[in-house]
Amino acid sequence: MKTKQFILGVALSAVVGGGVAVGSYKLLEDENNVVQQEQQYPSVRYTSDMRSSNTVVPEGLNFIKAAQVSTPAVVHVMTEYSVRSSDRYSSPMDPFLREFFGDGFGQNVPRGPQMASGSGVIIASNGYIVTNNHVIDKADKIEVVLDDKRKFEATLVGTDPTTDIALLKVNADKLPTIRYGNSDDLQIGEWVLAVGNPMNLTSTVTAGIVSAKGRNINILRTSANRDMSIESFIQTDAAVNPGNSGGALVNLNGDLVGINTAIASQTGQFAGYSFAVPSAIVSKVVDDLLKYGEVQRALLGATIQEIDATFAKEKGLKTLDGVYVAGVEEGSGAKEAGLEAGDVITSVNGVNVGKSSQLLEQIARYRPGDKVKVAYIRDGKNKSANVTLKNMDNSTELVKRSNAKAITFDGASFEPVTRQEMNKLGIDGGAKISGVRDSKFRDTGMKDGFIITRIDKYEVHEPADVEKHLKNFEGGVVYIEGIYPDGLKAYYPIGKG
Question: Where are the extended beta strands (E) located within 265-306?
Answer without folding.
Answer: 273-278, 302-305
